[in-house]
Amino acid sequence: MSNGYEQVAGRFMSARNPRTGAAIIREWSRTVSPRSAILDLGCGHGVPISQTLIEEGFTVFGVDGSRTLTAAFQKRFPNAFVECAGVEESEFFQRTFDGVVACGLLFLMPEDAQSLVIHKVARALNPNGRFLFTSPKETSNWRDSLTDRESLSLGAKRYHEILESEGLDVVGERSDEGGNYYYLVLKP
After folding, report:
1. How far is CA 114 from CA 8, 89, 154, in A?
2. Shortest CA distance to 134 belongs to which of 106, 169, 166?
3. CATH fold of 9-186, please?
4. Residues contacting residue 171 through CB under 8 Å, at least 6 positions apart
5. In this structure, are residues 118 and 185 in contact, taking their beta carbons and an 8 Å threshold?
6. Is the N end or the C end of the chain the one with fewer CB atoms within 10 Å?
7. Residue 121, C-beta contacts closer than 8 angstroms, at least 6 positions apart
8. Is the dihedral of CA 184, 59, 119, 177 positive or negative?
9. Are 29 and 56 in contact (CB under 8 A)?
10. What is the per-residue burial (b if ≥16 Cβ within 10 Å, else e) of 108-140?
11. Helix 156-165 / helix 111-124 crossing angle, nearest 10 deg
12. How many CB atoms lie within 10 A of CB 178?
């Protein structure tokens, strides 16, 4: 499931600022075992998240529901791995990871799907693995600016509850220059 992004893939690639979030991703990546494998959920065409991780020496595995975006990802990063699938259905390459990122993704899903993805991430993380995702701190819903589909932030309190129920610890929260709110999570 592409959450509507297949239909707007070209506009998304043109509109995506290649710098927004890169500094936080780079900083976060320094908490992950060097040169390890990182899963990028909702990887899109890979800019700037996967690109930053690859520049930092990580092996990147991307999952996105848009055929157009995953084709652009594979063309841009031929040595990375990519799967065209909804993250809800993906088997995450049937492996575990030292890091997982989900930027601009979870809030595109209903609450039950967000919980499911967090559950799957908890299972896919190695011990001492790191998870980074974005969603507004406040509980809110709005229309996605590109797809006009409903977006839903469960809010920090609810995300903390779901993460804790999966055995994950929130170790930090940050905002970037574009106003995106990040949750930094550890699997002890």
Report:
1. 22, 12, 9
2. 106
3. Rossmann fold (3.40.50)
4. 184, 185, 186
5. no
6. C
7. 41, 100, 102, 131, 166
8. positive
9. yes
10. bbeeebbbebbebbbebbeeebbbbbbbbeeee
11. 40
12. 10
For the stretch 22-63, pLDDT in tens is 999 999 999 999 999 999 999 999 999 999 999 999 999 999
CB-CB contact of 98 with 36 (8 Å): yes
Instruction: Give per-residue pLDDT as tens, 90-130.
Output: 999 999 999 999 999 999 999 999 999 999 999 999 999 99
CB 122 within 8 A of CB 97: no
Provide the whole-model pTM: 0.94
**Which pair of tokens denotes residue 50?**
């996967």
Q: Name the residue ranges covered by the structural domains of the chain.
A: 9-186
Cα–Cα dist 188/186, whole Å: 6
